[in-house]
Every structure is written in structure tokens, then in C-alpha cells.
Amino acid sequence: MGLLVELADFAPVFAAREERPEDALARARPVLAALIDDSLDAVRSDVFFARAARHHVAVAIFSGRGSRGELKARIAERGIPYLELPAQAADLARVIRATASGSPAKRRDSCRA
Question: Helices marked H in 1-113 — which ranges?
């Protein structure tokens, strides 16, 4: 994912080993968007999305290693951008830009269960 982010002309920042996604958001303070692996428990957590919205961080989700796509429909219902891997750098750039251009209030409303 990091290489794809770089190929899309963005600078990736990663969560530290064993760091919770919400802690990584607070530490890294993403400028455009946070990309999160759909195999992490955080994508099932309304608390994570609420914290991201509170910090005005746009979130997009990508299919991680071992992804079965089981959350794809729920993610789409919430209006959260989803990227299936493998993907091209141009596809990732489009998702990052689209994610970053959404209003925080709209994302917060779409993240409610």
C-alpha cells in the first residue's frame, strides 16, 4: 500500500507495530486521508469512525491481506470509499482525492450505525 501511495504522489505514514488505528490517527494527523485495511477490527467500530470525524480525518478502506470483502456492502452504505487491491496508483490517487474532498460532517453522519 505504501508503494501505491508513493506512486500516486502522496507521502504514506504508517501505524507503529501494535499501535491501535485511533492512536495512529492522533499521532500521524493525516493531511488528506487515512487508508485502513478492511481486515482490522477498527473498520467494524463506530467509535473509530467517530474519532476520525472528530479529528477531521477522512477515511477510506482498502481490501487487506486475507480480505473476504464481507464488509464491502456495509462500507458502501456508509458512503466510505473502498478500494479493492490490486489497484493502480491512479485508482488510489482518485480514492484519496475523493475521500479528502468529502466534508467531515457528511462523513460523520454516514458513519453512524
Answer: 2-7, 21-28, 46-54, 72-77, 89-101, 104-110
Closest CA to 22 of 48, 56, 61: 48
Express each pLDDT in 72-85 by its tens digit: 788 888 888 887 77
Report the predicted TM-score, pTM, of the whole model to 2 decimal places. Answer: 0.65
- Residue 10 and residue 19: Cα distance in Å, rounded? 22
For residue 15, is it within any domain?
yes
For 48-70, write each residue's pLDDT tens digit: 888 888 878 888 888 776 666 67
Q: How far apart are CA 113 and CA 111, in angstroms?
A: 6
Domain tally, the chain: 1
Tell me which residue range forms the domain holding 18: 2-79
Asked if the structure places residue 101 within a domain, the reply is: no
